Amino acid sequence: MRLYRIYYRVIGFVIAVVGLLLTPFIPKLINGDLPSELNIYVLYLLNLAVTVLSYWLFAYKNSLLQAHQRIDVTSKVALITNTIQYGLQFLVLVTIKNYYVYVLVSLVTQALTNIVTAIAATKMYPNYHPVGKLPKSEVNKINYRIRDLFTSKLGSVIVNSADTVVISAFLGLTMLAVYQNYYYILTSVIGFVGIVFQSCTAGIGNSVIMESKEKNFEDLKKFTFFIAWIAGFCTCCFLCLYQPFMEVWVGKDLMLGFTAVICFCIYYFVYEINQLLNTYKDAAGIWHEDRFRPLITAMSNLIMNLVMVQFWGIYGVLLSTVLSTLFIGMPWLLHNLFTVLFDRSQMMGYIRILFKYTCIVIISCVACYVVSTLVNFPTFGNLVYRAVICCIFPNLIYFMVYRKTVEFSQCIQLIDNMTKNKLRLSRLWQIK
């Protein structure tokens, strides 16, 4: 814990220094004029402070909860503090309409999140203290793994940030705001599904150590089926509900074309499958073998962003992220997983499984969209009608296709185990 505390302080310091060095270049990343009453430097430094504070203020104690597989505690704390944050920010926007105060609320609630999480970790595990000193050999071993992990996380940051920076620099703040409206909905759904990945990472890591390769591969197929169903259902919802929801929320003047919706749907499904593979990579600690992939994928995405935005605008930005992940990141990650963690001979079989799931998702999305557009209601009624179709139609297709598969039986059993057999789904489908 003492070593972790040092790491977090160093990382926070590096982010602060690099962030300050980038400050003079911030206006270069914005295309168009800024509101006269706002100082871009002040806003940037406030957001930088939020990020730095997340590493400095007792952040190392969160590792106790992760190591003991108590991510539920972190999630509950985040739920409470985020609710407070959004509530206060809403009041700020409605009453005083001051964007500086709006950002300051984020700074205060980030500090509150760290403090409450640290108090919870200290109360649950009072015997752990950041004292003592590890042997040099152990520190070197940890440093070696952290260097490999650093390149992975850096690549992820570049991928997630490149789209926003390129849109701001080439297409302007107005287009960025429209894009962010769509992206916000996408990341909100990703956050919900991400809870599954977070809760499973430690368990997968334990299974990697304790179980055979064959058992771990069977678990991978089970999780792939589970995520493909959830991601497929969400993709159908995005395809059918994005535009009606945006029309209700922001109006037609701040909407992108339907082509952008298709791009977002592809991006989302590819992201969720890639996130599952990354979860296995992180759980197995395959960072050294994977150290160059995230950076090369990120740089490829950035280069394609800079080129494609010139020709296709916002659509080029979205497609570049999908293409870099689909044709560079995922194949490379699959190779690493099936070289280190699983048998290489199983890789083509797994790719065929992914291809089958993808085809079924495409069919369900097309069918769901066709059915949802057969009847047109007034704006809000159209949204409700399509929501009902999305809840029923894709899940019915998946059930009809998958109900006799082994993965379906395993997932039903898994849900019963998670609910302590309260739903008794296994008995309903006579799964033994």
Describe it for me?
The structure is a single chain. With 432 residues, the protein is mainly alpha-helical. It has helices spanning 2-22, 40-56, 62-67, 71-94, 99-124, 136-171, 173-210, 213-249, 258-284, 293-312, 314-340, 347-372, 379-402, 406-418, 425-428. It is globular, with a radius of gyration of 23 Å. The protein has two domains: 1-133, no CATH class; 151-432, no CATH class. Helix 1 (2-22) packs antiparallel against helix 2 and helix 10 (293-312) runs antiparallel to helix 11. The chain contains 15 helices and no strands. The model has no long low-confidence stretch (mean pLDDT 86).
Which residues form runs of ≥5 with pLDDT under 50?
none
Structural class: mainly alpha
The helix/strand series, from N terminus to C terminus, equals HHHHHHHHHHHHHHH
> What distance lies between the first and last C-alpha atoms, to the nearest angstrom?
44 Å
Characterize the main sheet: none
Instruction: Indicate the percent of residues in helices.
Output: over 70%
Mean pLDDT: 86
Total domains: 2
- The number of E-state strands comes to 0
- Rg calc: 23 Å
| Share in β-strands | under 5%
* Morphology call: globular
Q: What is the number of helices?
A: 15
